[in-house]
Design goal:
Structural class: mainly alpha
Number of helices: 2
Strand content: under 5%
Shape: rod-shaped
Distance between the termini: 144 Å
Order of helices and strands: HH
Helix content: over 70%
Length: about 110
Amino acid sequence: MFEGRHLCMVLGGVLFGTAGVKILGSKDAKKVYTHVTAAVMRCADSVMETATNIKENCGDIKADADEINAKRREEERLKEIEDAKAVIADAEAKISELEAEGAEAAEEEKEA
């Protein structure tokens, strides 16, 4: 009885496998595979299109960010130049004051 049961299970497995191969190899099954493959390919195309759009948007964002940073650097450079001009103007004013004081001191020494 034990051997008969195993033999029945083996024969059942072989029949099931053979039927499965026949079903999987049928024209209807091939149509299903074809439709599924087509759907997967459409999905892949859609994903690639989305990825391309995202890549283009990232490129645009980077270009805009580069432009903003270039403007900011230029503004900072102009501010540094203005600050340097202010420092030079202050220094020239102090030099003029010192020269005037020196001239006054020289005249006072001449008079004395």
